[in-house]
């Protein structure tokens, strides 16, 4: 009897393994483990299974709530079966798990579904001036202190200071500018004391003891550093939310040009910028927008976050795009496809213009700001800029009446091509704009 059971078990296991290699079952097992849907959107799963097997496959929806009072009507998605397959319909914001089982109890696949409310924002394209103050003083290089005999000394470097370190305290006092640091050095030199310098290095706090040295060249005490306390530049706004006045811009982090490290925000400001001229890009040498800041322009706001998905903050007034005077629906990564699209940006003065592009590739799993490969196809934009140029980062990408992302990078050897970031990544930095129940209720 025992041997018969073993033989039966081996036969069943063999049949199951063979079943797993059939095209239909491979299709089932290759279904994504996660799917995002917008309320009102439907998705179809066609397994194309043999009739006898199809009858033994069951799909069910399980919500996150384990309350005994929960009802099927509370689920964010529902499943309907038809002759063409299974249809998933997103009913309301929330998360659920779709469980696929054989014979009702053998689990084959689980799919997590996130249903999000439709989101509408003002399309950007505005040229903005960015002024960012770092939360400390960035070390960007070492400068020799010239001694009386002509020799050179590097006090800070000799005590362990590294390029990229962020100085945030000296002798217990917070420092946020080059002036603050110079004052601390003068005070220590006057009392012939060492400086206790606290720095941030790779998310760790390090304390160094440095003695200022008199420089015969400048006739001041120095510690031998080049430092920077902020950056300025020109970029493009991606979108603006009229309910919260929050905005997103650039689509990538602002880094220090010398250290290549992201800047920790102390405070920052965005203002309107007028594009005066454009240096055309060519292979091996990216182009650039040259602009001037206009603090009396239509855009004025703060900067609260500097992230890998762009800069974020809040404006003091309203922001409008005359080319798209109405709110535009957000398109998520799963709704983007290769094909024609448009970008909105400024190439002359402060006038927003629309230009044709092609979305060549979509990498839906990428979270690094390079989810789309885009190509500029608009002859006029190519004639003016050569393609994608510095200062164009953040220019919104619109496809089929949805804002789906923003321009982020240019290909060094092909300025007509570059990368774009998904709106999914940018919205993730603004939780107040995600699954907003108030907004959802006003749309229907």
Tell me what you see in this structure.
The structure is a single chain. With 444 residues, this protein is mainly beta. It folds into 3 domains: 27-118, Immunoglobulin-like; 121-130 and 230-436, Beta Barrel (Thrombin, subunit H); 144-223, PDZ domain (Pdz3 Domain), CATH 2.30.42. Helices cover 15% and strands 46% of the residues. The chain contains 8 helices and 32 strands. The chain has helices at 2-20, 23-29, 51-54, 155-158, 178-190, 379-385, 423-427, 437-443; strands at 34-38, 42-45, 57-62, 77-82, 85-90, 94-102, 106-116, 120-123, 127-142, 145-146, 152-153, 166-170, 173-174, 195-201, 204-210, 213-215, 220-222, 225-240, 246-249, 265-279, 287-294, 300-302, 305-307, 310-314, 328-330, 339-346, 352-362, 372-376, 389-390, 396-399, 402-411, 414-422. Strand 16 (213-215) and strand 17 (220-222) form a beta hairpin. The chain is globular, with a radius of gyration of 29 Å. Residues 66-70 and 435-444 have low confidence and may be disordered.
Helix-strand category: mainly beta
Total count of strands: 32
Give the quaternary arrangement of the chains: single chain
Backbone shape: globular
CATH arch. level architecture of the largest domain:
Beta Barrel
Strand order of the largest sheet: 26-27-28-32-31-30
Return the CATH topology of the largest domain: Thrombin, subunit H
User: How many separate structural domains?
Assistant: 3
Enumerate how many helices there are, as a single number: 8
Helix content: 10-25%
Spatial gap, N to C terminus: 65 Å
The largest β sheet comes out as: 6 strands, antiparallel, barrel
Low-confidence stretches: 66-70, 435-444
Mean pLDDT over the residues: 85
CATH class of the largest domain: Mainly Beta
Fraction in beta strands: over 45%
CA gyration radius, whole angstroms: 29 Å
């Amino acid at each position: 009897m025992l041997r018969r059971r073993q033989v039966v078990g081996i036969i069943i296991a063999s049949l199951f393994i063979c079943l797993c290699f059939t095209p239909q079952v491979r299709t089932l097992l290759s279904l994504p483990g996660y799917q995002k849907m917008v309320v009102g959107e439907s998705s179809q799963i066609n397994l194309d299974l043999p009739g006898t097997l199809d009858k033994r496959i069951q799909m069910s929806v399980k919500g996150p709530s384990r309350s005994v009072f929960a009802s099927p009507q509370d689920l964010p998605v529902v499943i309907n079966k038809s002759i063409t397959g299974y249809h998933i319909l997103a009913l309301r914001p929330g998360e659920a798990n779709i469980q696929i089982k054989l014979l009702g109890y053998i689990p084959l696949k689980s799919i997590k579904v996130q249903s999000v409310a439709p989101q509408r924002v003002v399309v950007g394209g505005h040229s903005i001036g960015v002024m960012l103050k770092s939360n400390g003083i960035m070390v960007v290089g070492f400068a020799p202190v010239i001694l009386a005999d002509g020799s050179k000394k590097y006090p800070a470097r000799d005590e362990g200071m590294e390029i990229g370190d962020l100085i945030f305290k000296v002798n217990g006092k917070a420092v946020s500018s080059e002036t603050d640091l110079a004052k601390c050095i003068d005070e220590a030199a006057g009392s012939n004391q060492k400086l206790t310098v606290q720095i941030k290095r790779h998310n760790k706090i390090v304390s160094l003891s440095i003695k200022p040295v008199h420089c015969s060249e400048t006739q001041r005490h120095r510690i031998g550093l080049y430092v920077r306390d902020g950056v300025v530049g020109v970029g493009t706004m991606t979108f603006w939310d009229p309910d919260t006045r929050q905005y997103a811009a650039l689509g990538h982090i602002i880094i220090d040009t010398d250290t290549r490290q992201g800047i920790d925000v102390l405070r920052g400001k965005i203002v309107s910028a007028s594009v005066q001229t454009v240096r055309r890009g060519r292979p091996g040498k990216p182009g650039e927008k040259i602009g001037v800041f206009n603090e009396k322009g239509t855009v004025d706001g703060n900067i609260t976050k500097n992230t890998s998905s762009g800069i974020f903050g809040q404006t003091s007034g309203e922001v409008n795009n005359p080319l798209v005077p109405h709110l535009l629906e957000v398109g998520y990564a799963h709704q983007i496809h290769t094909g024609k699209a448009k970008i909105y940006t400024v190439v002359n003065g402060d006038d927003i213009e629309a230009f044709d592009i092609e979305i060549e590739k979509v990498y839906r799993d990428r979270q690094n700001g390079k989810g789309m490969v885009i190509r500029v196809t608009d002859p006029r934009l190519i004639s003016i800029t050569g393609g994608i140029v510095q200062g164009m980062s953040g220019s919104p990408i619109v496809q089929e009446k949805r804002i789906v992302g923003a321009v982020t990078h240019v290909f060094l050897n092909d300025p007509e091509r570059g990368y774009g970031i998904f709106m999914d990544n940018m919205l993730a930095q603004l939780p107040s704009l995600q699954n907003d129940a108030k907004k959802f209720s006003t749309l229907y």
